[in-house]
From TrEMBL:
One of its GO terms (molecular function) is peroxiredoxin activity. Residues 47-97 form the Carboxymuconolactone decarboxylase-like domain. This is Alkylhydroperoxidase. Coiled coil: none annotated. SUPFAM superfamilies: AhpD-like. InterPro entries: AhpD-like, AhpD_core, CMD-like, Uncharacterised_peroxidase-rel. It comes from the Bacteria. It comes from Bradyrhizobium nitroreducens.
Length: 191
């Protein structure tokens, strides 16, 4: 018999002890997905930060716009790989497979998006996200021009940068907390 591995190096509160709004959100996610993604449980350790984190997450990832939900997930997977964030690559890789309806895409994007079966537009988007993730200080007008040549607007550029920056924070928290991906993520969207 194997002992269950901890999902965080920090204390994880019991669902019954969480503030009502956080518990309700977590139960709604559980109802929709069939399990509770560990990120919700780990971040519930700090309720005010939980609320701020998910408010910004939702503002970036659930809004309408020119970036599809799958493209937003591509940004997360590609940049999370650079930051060596196992949790985000696995969890958002599962979401990417589902949103793109492609069982191969997440692995391709995580390992080397330049060789992935994605469009030139999406490669330009990920080139920019990687630049923001690794050397934002070098972003210049030529980056904007490249993105515009692929049909991205100024607002799209902001979205790409904001998603990249937000998940840079998320990657660092996941790594520091030793957040463990749920086993369910590994098989989701694979066919």
């Amino acid at each position: 018999m194997t002992q269950a591995l901890a999902i965080s190096r920090f204390p994880v509160p019991d669902l019954a002890d969480m503030p009502e709004d956080i518990r309700s959100r977590i139960l709604a996610v559980q109802e929709k997905s069939g399990f509770i993604p560990n990120v919700f449980l780990v971040l519930a350790h700090r309720p005010d930060e939980f609320r701020a984190f998910f408010a910004y997450h939702d503002a970036l990832m659930d809004k309408p716009g020119n970036l599809t939900k799958a493209e937003r997930e591509m940004i997360v997977v590609a940049t999370s790989n650079l930051n060596q964030c196992q949790y985000c690559v696995i969890a958002h890789g599962a979401i990417l497979r589902i949103r793109a309806k492609d069982p191969l895409i997440a692995d391709q994007v995580a390992v080397n998006y330049r060789k992935a079966d994605i469009t030139d537009r999406q490669k330009a988007m990920l080139d920019f996200a990687v630049r923001v993730s690794t050397e934002a200080y070098k972003v210049s007008e030529s980056d904007f021009a490249t993105l515009k040549s692929h049909g991205f607007t100024e607002e799209d550029v902001w979205d790409i940068a904001a998603i990249t920056a937000f998940f840079g924070l998320s990657n660092r928290l996941a790594n520091v907390t030793s957040m463990r991906p749920n086993a369910e993520f590994y098989s989701m969207g694979r066919g």
